[in-house]
Structure formats: C-alpha cells, structure tokens
Amino acid sequence: MQFETDPQSIAAELPKLSLVYEKHPLYGVDLFISGKEAASDLDLLRQNGVTTVVNCAVNLDFNYVRQADLVSDHEGSAYGPGEIRYYKIGLIDGSGNPDTQMVAAYYILRAALEQILPEKQSYPRRDRGNVLVNCRGGRSRSVIVMALFLHLTLPSEFVTLAAAIAHIRERRQLARAEWYKAPKPVLIEAAGRAAEWVRLIEGVR
C-alpha cells in the first residue's frame, strides 16, 4: 500500500535547484530542474548562469518583468521583457493533458535552446546560457519533460525513457518512496507515446 506524504515536507528535502545534466553536447549548456522556489529566485538563477526558464506547470506563473521601460513602446506599462527568457508549457500534473501537448513540450524545450532572437531593441534578452525546467515542486512535470528531452536528444546515453527518468531522479535526489508518483505514471505513458511520435516526425527509427 502507498501512503501520501506531506508535499511540503517532501519539497523541503529536495535541493532548491538541481543540476541534472552538465554541458549538453548538442547545446553546450547546463540543464537544471527546480520547483517554484528556485524558478522565482532571480539571484539564484543568475548565480548559476540560467538565462532561460521553461515552466511546465499550468497552475503556476512568474512575473519576471523588472524594467518595463526597457523597450520604448512598453514605457509606463505593466508589461515588458522579463529579466530572463521565459517559455510556458502548462501541463496538468496528472490526467487531462492532450497527448499532443507532451510532443509540444519537447519542441518548446528545444526551441528554448535553439531559438535565435533578432538584433533588435525590442528583443533585449538575447543572452544564451543555462536552462531551467520547472514545475510547482520539481518532482513530476519538469522531470518527465526533461527525461523526454534527454532520451530523444542523447539516445546513445539514454537508450530508454526509463533510463533518463532514473538519471534525473538520482540527480534531483527524489526519495525512492515517491518514485511511484514522481513523475506521475500518466505523464510517463504520455511521454512514451510522444517519443514515438517525435521519431516518426523526424524520420528516426
């Protein structure tokens, strides 16, 4: 029988920020996972060279705008470029996501690493650095999206999706007692289907 554990006590035991892969060979950057606490801590992100955040949680948002007047037509407004580049996937931590959303999550994370911003005043945040993938607790949605990404971009190192999940569980220091729901089984199943679809899209057997 599996017993629910207090989420706050579990979160307290996890590192605030976890380096899950150093210097990805295709992109040359470090990849991190966290919950909301690290994703909202701009000082911590800067200290770790994080310039891009990919938020996997539909029920969580951040306001990274500190200088709304950095772009001329944003002056005096409540919006503007954030202090870092910010991408949103918006997964539910359980059932309810369309299957195609996990495919989209993989491509959004790739876009966060590959997108080249134009040299224009309206695109002031062009720094390319390390990437953080987050959700509320950094235990389920962010883990499965990162695992799918590692499995598909480094197939010789992570031959299976399960191998990528195991690697991230270790690097994130997820408690073994929580593995049955970190990440959620329904998300693992969706990621497995997404991996097959991506291979079909890209013509990889």
From TrEMBL:
Database matches in CDD domains: DSP
Domain Tyrosine specific protein phosphatases: 114-172
Keywords, sorted A to Z: Plasmid
InterPro entries per the UniProt record, alphabetical: Prot-tyrosine_phosphatase-like, Tyr_Pase_dom
Tagged with keyword Cell cycle: no
The UniProt record lists the keyword Nucleotide-binding: no
Protein name, UniProt field: Tyrosine specific protein phosphatases domain-containing protein
